[in-house]
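[09:14] KT: can someone run the structure on this one? pasting the chain below
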Amino acid sequence: MKKNKATAALLWTAGVVLLWEGVAFFLANILHDKMANAKLPYLHSIIYTIAANFSEISNAALITVSKAATGFALGAAAGIMLAVIMSISKTAEKIAFPYLIISQMIPVLGLAPIIFNLVRNMDLSRIIIAAYLTFFPVAANMLGGLKSVEPEKRELMYSYAAKKRSVYIKLMLPFSLPYLMTGLKIAAPLSITASILVDMLGSKGGIGVKLLYSLYGGEKDIFWASVLVCAAIGMLSCFIIILAEKILIPWKKTSSGGEE
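[09:31] RB: done, structure tokens below
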């Protein structure tokens, strides 16, 4: 099973690389498009640009990732806490859940400038927006996991005089881990996106700044290198959660649907 997955991933990657290089070749040498290097440069030239400017690009990416990770952690912690509170109290769920849904109707593009105007700190704005985007999927999925525990299992533990705290620690929380991981896999790339977005509002550092300045400065190589790094960071964040899922709940089915 693992060999089949590895082979499929390798073939998929090779297919993407060949398609990218083929389209770039078609634009440059078949259509003779003068803007071919700007529209879609060769993938190998983008990788060369990343290698040639590795220190500069990696430092910018590290700034963005560090703030996104902080916001992700805070948003996940707040989402888990609220989910537990809502699972304990039906009143709390009825009050909080509608507002939780309404909060996600606010476009991030509109919310980010408001947050920055309030806090007047770019780093703090990154963290708040990342936490905001992380909060909902974590809270919603965690609550779904907590509510999916069969009543018979809870009643069995209560019949052995287990306290509510023990029921949550030994039954409810472990049972809801797969749901939590689903929420974290959704939230991780979103937190990266949020941090990149706030970079573009006028930050002095970050991969989003590099992306914006290179676009308007005509540095197409740096622009595409920054785009590729942004995509890689987002995918890596999701893979980290998948790895954590395999470590924490190896007995469960993976998100791909196969048994471990």
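[09:33] KT: thanks! The two ends are 8 Å apart (CA to CA).
[09:34] RB: yep, looked fine to me
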